[in-house]
């Protein structure tokens, strides 16, 4: 709690829940960015940033629905 800003104002359970949620979010980002769909084959062209953002938003929203 000492390492987290305002950590003394939040109970330990809430802080751990938020930490777990953030780690899951980071794992999801790694999973998404590791997929071949986002990276061009040799000689191919990279996807538009808007395509990547749309895909990330869709994955994140579906992930949020699963958590609720």
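^ structure tokens above, recovered residues below v
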């Amino acid at each position: 709690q000492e390492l987290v800003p305002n950590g003394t104002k939040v109970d330990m359970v809430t802080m751990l829940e938020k930490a777990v949620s953030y780690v899951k979010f980071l794992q999801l980002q790694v999973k998404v960015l590791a997929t071949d769909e986002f990276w061009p084959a040799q000689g191919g062209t990279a996807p538009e940033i808007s395509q990547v953002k749309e895909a990330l938003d869709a994955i994140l929203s579906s992930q949020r629905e699963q958590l609720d």
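The longest helix spans residues 12-34.
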